Amino acid sequence: MAEPAEVAFRGDLLTPRTRRWAGVLALIGLIGLWQVGSSTGALDPVLAPSPAEVWQALAGMARSGELWQHVAASLGRLAGGFALGATAGIVFGLAIGLSSLVRSPGVALVSALFPVPKIALLPLFIIWFGIGEGSKVATIAFGSFFPTVVATYAAVDGVDRSLVRMGRAFGLSAGAIVRKIVLPGALPGILAGLRIAASIAIVLLVAAEMIGANRGIGALVLAAGNLMQSDRLIAGVVMLSVLGLCVAGVLGYAERKLTDWR
Amino acid sequence: MQLGAAHVSHRYGPLPVLDDVSLTVATGEVVAIVGPSGCGKSTLLRILGGLERPSAGRAETAGAPPEGSLNPVTFVFQDFALLPWRSVAGNVRLGLEASGLPARTIDAMVADALVRTGLTDFAKAWPRQLSGGMKQRVGIARALAVRPAILLMDEPLSALDAQTRALLMDDLVRLHAGGDIGSVYVTHNLDEAVRLADRIIVLSRRPGRVRAEIAIAIPRPERRMDDPVLARHAAGLWDLIRDDAAAADRELADG
Questions:
Q1: Are B33 and B5 spatial neighbours (Cβ–Cβ below 8 Å)?
Q2: Helix (H) or strand (E) run with residue B193 in it
Q3: Which residues from B are below 8 Å from A168, CB to CB?
Q4: Which of B59, B118, B156, B252 shows its CA 20 to 30 Å from the CA of B172?
Q5: pLDDT tens readout for residues B141-174
Q6: pLDDT at residue number B90
Q7: Contact B95/A170, CB-based, under 8 Å?
Q8: What is the pLDDT of residues A66-116, one digit of tens each?
Q9: How far apart are CA A102 and CA A174, in angstroms?
Q10: In Å, how far are B157, B186, B199, B200, B239 from B217, measured between CA atoms?
């Protein structure tokens, strides 16, 4: 036999590796580049204020307390609307998933209303609930409701039927099967739905605050834009990013805690 | 206690799957049901366990269940059907929670079932951490915990590899040594049937009818895998099933 040759390795697949530091570096690099652009005059200070200026605007608003008023107003609306919409969504989704009485009418209703961009309903909600908090909370609640409903009933449908049959075979009551088998089995899907609902809720929060609000991060961004205060405007956008990250962080934490068996 | 099927026939829509099947199993006895795939073995088991209503005939019990039995007829499933969000002990506990027994009694019953299946060290483990064999031991522990008189086992070893199967088979033989538990054991594995069963019921191809009933005279604990009598039994069973199995194999799934 001829001289043995090594078999060529061809087992490498598309497996990107996670490197935390590279992510942090990319963010810092981008901000650094932006700062250099501003400092050298390559970027127009009115159109694109430097990171330092944005930071100063943010710090100034934080010192005067203005920032916290906006953040508190936004957080209140977001929490209220999301809690309402998500709770109603889970309850309604469970009803669709578990009851033949609710299922078809419920699915028809949800399918008809799901595609409507919820912001289009804000004027209607203003007529119903007034220009104040009511219409904003209602818009956010409505927007969080639909993705939660759809995720919840899909998750209930997805619960392994062999587990339900097992519960029956061991003499569990219908209520016990819902509590001990269906709900925990559907929980990962419900939590995934809540993530989507939360991101939609933030979009609606900002949109609602841009129509008839004095307080709130959306109102801050809009007002800064009207006055060409681009440093305050970007500071508001940064706060929205932080808000979104915090919400995602809280939901992610809940997910890890509640589904630690996975 | 006795559990039986009396002239059970069943159809799924137009498709007949069982045709006038009768059998009984008593505490202390193991009855295996073998037959080609699609002969209605699993359907028969679900009917016996009350999970499915037969089109004709009925499942019936005779005699009182043993004292303290919480679920006299209890399943062991092929796919284990463990709740992934409960620990091993939590899964074993499931069938005891609605019993109204004091928590301390339930704890003791769970602990006892874990001891009998060699799972004590795994009480706090999650199902995903367990091998297939250990998962099925949890399934068996969960069934034992409710003090059954009759176990309905639906291909309990089919999802396991050959070596694990041999180990679990020894467990099952030990489980029946006490004589206080009877089993209906559905399998397509003829070696398992002759190793474990007192009687073997051979079902025909769909619709399943009882083709033969074979008794194995050797006491269960004395059976060896290489016993020529058992090998002859297995070969005889295969002669009975072979043509049906070949025909079933060539059948289209939608009939």
A1: no
A2: helix B190-196
A3: 51
A4: B59
A5: 999 999 999 999 999 999 899 889 989 999 999 9
A6: 96
A7: yes
A8: 999 999 999 999 999 999 999 999 999 999 999 999 999 999 999 999 889
A9: 17
A10: 24, 20, 9, 11, 20
Strands in B73-76's sheet, in edge-to-edge order, are B73-76, B150-154, B182-186, B30-34, B199-203, B210-215
Nearest CA in chain B to A258: B85
Cα(A257)–Cα(A251) distance, integer angstroms: 10
- A170 interaction partners in chain B (CB closer than 8 Å): 71, 74-75, 94-95, 142, 146
Name the average pLDDT for chain A: 92
Segment A3-7 shows an average pLDDT of 90
Whole-structure pTM value: 0.85
Of B156, B167, B159, give the one whose Cα is nearest residue B193: B156
List the beta bridge partners of residue B186.
B33, B154
Q: How far is A156 from chain B (nearest CA, A)?
A: 15
Beta bridge partners, B61, equal B3
Q: What's phi and psi for A185, nearest 5 deg?
A: -70, -30
How many contacts, defined by CB atoms under 8 Å, are there between A and B?
A: 52
Cis peptide before B228 (omega within 30 of 0): no
* A215 CB burial (10 A radius; 0-12, 13-18, 19+): middle
Instruction: Please calculate the CA angle A79-A141-A144 and round it to the nearest 5 degrees.
Output: 90
Contacts of B98 in chain A (CB under 8 A): 171-173, 176
* CA atoms of B143 and A121, how far apart (whole Å): 55
A128-174 pLDDT tens trace: 998 889 999 999 999 999 999 999 999 999 999 999 999 999 999 99
Per DSSP, what are the bridge partners of residue B203?
B210
DSSP state of A179: I
Per the CB < 8 A criterion, the answer to whether A106 and A166 are in contact is: no
Full 3-state SS string of A57-100 = HHHHHHHHCHHHHHHHHHHHHHHHHHHHHHHHHHHHHHHHHHCH
Distance in angstroms (rounded) separating the CA atoms of residues B141 and B205: 33
For residue B197, what are the CA distances in angstroms to A58, A216, A222, A250, B88? 79, 74, 79, 56, 29
pLDDT tens digits, B202-241: 998 888 899 999 999 888 888 887 888 888 998 888 988 8
Ranges of chain B whose pLDDT falls below 50: 255
Three-state DSSP state, B60: strand
Write down how long chain B is.
Answer: 255
Q: If we measure between CA atoms, which residue out of B104, B94, B176, B182 comes closest to residue B139?
A: B94
Q: Which residues contact A238 (CB under 8 A, 6 or more apart)?
A: A54, A58
Q: Write the ipTM.
A: 0.90
For residue B84, give the nearest of A165, A167, A261 by CB distance: A261
